[in-house]
What we know:
mainly beta, 3 helices, eight-stranded antiparallel β-barrel, single chain
Amino acid sequence: MMPRLRLFCKMTVWMLLALWLGASGSARAQGSGSVTGRYEKDGGELLILEGDNETLVRYEAGFEQGNSVGSCECPLVVKQKSGERWTLQGAGSSDTWSLKLEPTRLVLEGKTPACCGMGWPGTDTFERSAVRAPSTCKVKADRANFFDSQSAATPRKAYVVAGDTVEVFLPGSEPRRVPARFKGPRKSTVGLLERAQLDCPQPGAPQAARPPVEAQRLRPFAGKWLELTRKGRGFVLFKPCAANTRSFTVRPASGELEVELGQETTVTKVVGLRPGPAGSQSLEVMYESGTLETVGWKELDARKGLVSVKSPELFSQGREYVREDRKSAYPVQVETGCDEER
């Protein structure tokens, strides 16, 4: 009986396809066991999802960049798997990386990380013990095709059908498509599936019942914070034509962290708070669905009310924010062309 899942290898920006590069060009070298999982630490994340013919990898993190905070959002192409080291490539031909699979940790190194910008230290480490497994979901659509990226208009020929079980990484904001793996009778395939075509169980009650952090511990974060946009060597408060300036509000009494994305609002609860490196803080927030996300927070200038905030989903751009009562120090820049649009 022929399997219904047909696999086609196609190299893209988001999808990381492992090439078979052995001495004969036909055999894949194995690493030290499976490393599939989401590795998280202080606002950084390394996502790995392995299949037989493809491997999806994505790296996101924040780092000190002078008086500010830089950010990495890196899709990487797996060029070779050899022993306990993977060779990876970024967007450009000279943007080379490697991933070392050590017994207790994963070490990511980049020589010219174009996706991170100047000041990236060149290496990042994730403990293998700090890994979260993918969730298990059922396909509810009659047929669900895999995609290579969030923006791809044409699906791949690989697909799953109603009733199939897939492993999925569900980000807190749950975008249109989510990373997924299907283990077929002969092979496993990896790609992006439409979230609406999947039936995923809600998290268990014990996790959903976690209380928020005490109000006293959240008071230093309290208030409304407005997103700043870099302009030259300084910042401005950017005002779009048909949306609000992005912002977030921390309410210690309820433990809520509400994020205003311009035209959409997301409400989470702060259920964890711990110190991070170099005087930073890590806030663990929980969505209504029970999904957790770690938000990295660093105070840049207490007198000016300036902070940087970074997380995999809510604050994926790694922006700087100013407390609302200090916003007068920054000019407002209104988006051009607003009158024409109206």
